[in-house]
Design brief:
The complex is a heterodimer. In chain A, 49% of the residues are buried. Helices cover 78% and strands 2% of the residues of chain A. Chain A is built from eleven helices and two strands; from the N terminus they run αααββαααααααα. Chain A has a two-stranded antiparallel sheet. By secondary structure, chain B is of the alpha/beta class. The chains are: A mainly alpha, B alpha/beta.
Chain lengths: 254, 309
């Protein structure tokens, strides 16, 4: 049995799905982030001055890009897989000889592609407002890829466990968005009072944003090695949880 | 080798409901097999387990010699499923639905396109290949599900109420298509509430009730067990009451319509002779119910009565 073809089929289906509805998937982040860059980066940022040695615009660009990668990698998988469950066309995959790791890999890859594509769009928008330079391509690309992978996996787990459309909007609205905004996208944690600096250490998105920012401008509030270790171990844990849920048939088998 | 072999299959759901109580079933290669039973009898659970949509609690399922547990990939490759409910992506085109399904079974793109064209033509849907599936009629959606199930050329096709909700014309056209598929060598398992459909198409039959197989034989042997035929007669003149004739149970449905139970050993000649003696003229005669339907009701009623405390 050629599982490569099954994997490719799922990935192509997933990419076509979000490309076909590009006004809902690719256009909104371009407009939203253009407004971020215009208002926070230019109009307000010019008055803020330097943050840790970088202009405010240079400082926020990596965080805004990564925030888009996170939300879109997550949203792609959670909405697509939940819809597949809701319409019962997950049965097409369950009946066919497609192993669980291929199902997981296919949907997660779809989420990664959308996350990175949106990240690229936001990066190009940022280029309109500022001359963006990347100091370390390897760190930048690897953090973007690993972050997209991590949140695509998180979206998959959310979709598997979700029992209604409300359940797939709770985590993005009430967990991901607050953690992203409080994850050092628009400020350095060194600017916070000591108590909030300590609390911020528990926010995983802080590590991702700072590692990504390090790739762009060489500035980070956290240790880069620790950030990579955290992302890597989280991916392993979430992969194992996803495969366990698929094996048990949680939420997808009667 | 059997197309399907089930041994001691059990399923108890999380809420404690025992849907299958240890069923054994064999389906021969090339057969057109009916799996019948009232709602909630366990048919869909059995089909769900065979097609990997439901996890079994115990027992084994073997498809063309491949154990569904230990040789899962090969076993699944042999199966095509047409489920009860429409379950394809309603936003996808007919062609893409089939191509994607072929991809899940590992068919290379070129072969997937060839098989898609063949199956859509066989189901008379080729003209609709680029139509978004939600725009199709109910009958066409049913045929898309059959075409999708056949796209990887399965050896065993499971049809779970494939003609539910379609009109008689489309139903009969679908029967022809199913017969053609079976004649090409595909083993078919059919569940249906239209017992006329099962009687007309299937050679062997199992009836499941309350999680157990209550009957499993070939269709003709089963029908031979029917001891009484039920007829409805239209009369020329109205009657005030049903006539009393020894050996025949009669019931007046309307003043000009009479239901009669005719034991096989008596025959219709004796009945007509008795009616003629009483000066009762019969204009027309028809079966009250389909023969299999009568037998099905007898078996299920007997089982239900037997399970009463």
């Amino acid at each position: 049995m050629n599982h490569r073809i099954a994997f490719k089929t799922i990935v192509i289906k997933e990419i076509f799905r979000f490309v076909r509805i590009w006004p809902q998937t690719l256009l909104p982040p371009a407009i939203t982030t253009a407004l971020y860059f215009l208002i926070f980066g230019k109009l307000i940022g010019d008055r803020i001055g330097m943050v840790n040695g970088a202009t405010y615009m240079d400082y926020i660009v990596p965080g805004v890009i990564l925030m888009s990668v996170i939300s879109h990698a997550y949203a792609n998988v959670v909405s697509s897989f939940y819809s597949t469950k809701f319409q019962h066309n997950i049965e097409e995959l369950l009946v066919a000889p497609v192993p669980n790791w291929v199902i997981l890999g296919g949907y997660v890859t779809g989420g990664i592609v959308r996350g990175l594509l949106v990240g690229l769009v936001v990066g190009l928008i940022a280029q309109i407002f500022d001359d963006i330079a990347i100091q370390n391509w390897w760190i930048t690309l690897s953090v973007a890829f690993l972050t997209a992978t991590l949140f695509a996996l998180a979206g998959f787990i959310n979709a598997v466990l979700a029992e209604s459309f409300d359940d797939i909007s709770i985590i993005p609205n009430f967990v991901l968005t607050p953690l992203s905004y409080l994850g050092g996208v628009f400020y350095s944690v060194t600017m916070l009072p000591p108590i909030w600096q300590t609390i911020s250490i528990g926010n995983p998105i802080l590590y991702l944003v700072n590692a990504f920012r390090y790739g762009f401008i060489g500035i980070s509030d956290v240790d880069i090695g620790l950030a990579f270790t955290m992302i890597g171990s989280s991916i392993v844990i979430m992969t194992l949880i996803s495969l366990y849920l698929l094996h048990k048939g949680t939420g997808i088998k009667n | 080798m059997k197309a399907l072999s089930i041994r001691n299959l059990r399923k108890t759901y999380n809420n404690g409901f025992e849907a299958l109580k240890g069923i054994d079933l064999d389906v021969e290669v090339g057969d057109f097999f009916a799996l019948l039973g009232p709602n909630g009898a366990g048919k869909s659970t059995a089909i769900g387990i065979i097609s990997s949509l439901v996890n079994a609690s115990a027992g084994s399922v073997s498809i063309f010699g491949h154990d569904l547990h230990s040789d899962r990939t090969q076993a699944k490759t042999c199966i095509g499923l047409v489920p009860q409910e429409i379950n394809f992506n309603q936003f996808d085109t007919v062609k893409n639905i089939l191509i994607n399904q072929a991809g899940y079974y590992g068919l290379p793109r070129k072969l997937a396109l060839q098989r898609t064209e063949l199956c859509l033509k066989q189901m008379d849907l080729w003209e609709k290949r680029d139509t978004v599936s939600r725009r199709l009629s109910g009958g066409m959606k049913r045929r898309v599900m059959i075409a999708r199930a056949m796209v990887h050329a399965p050896k065993l096709l499971i049809l779970d109420e494939p003609t539910a909700g379609v009109d008689i014309e489309i139903r009969r056209a679908m029967w022809k298509m199913m017969e053609a598929v079976n004649q090409q060598g595909t083993t078919i398992i059919l569940t249906t509430h239209y017992l006329e459909e099962a009687e007309s198409l299937c050679r062997n039959i199992a009836i499941i009730d309350q999680g157990k197989i209550v009957e499993n034989s070939d269709m003709s042997s089963l029908l031979a067990k029917l001891q009484v035929d039920h007829f409805v007669m239209d009369l020329a003149q109205p009657l005030a009451a049903a006539p009393q004739i020894d050996g025949f149970k009669m019931e007046l449905l309307t003043d000009k319509s009479l239901a009669v139970a005719v034991p096989k050993h008596s025959g219709l000649n004796q009945l007509f002779s008795e009616l003629t003696q009483r000066n009762i003229q019969v204009i027309s005669l028809k079966n009250k119910t389909n023969r299999l339907e009568q037998l099905f009701m007898d078996l299920v009623d007997a089982k239900t009565a037997g399970s009463q405390p």
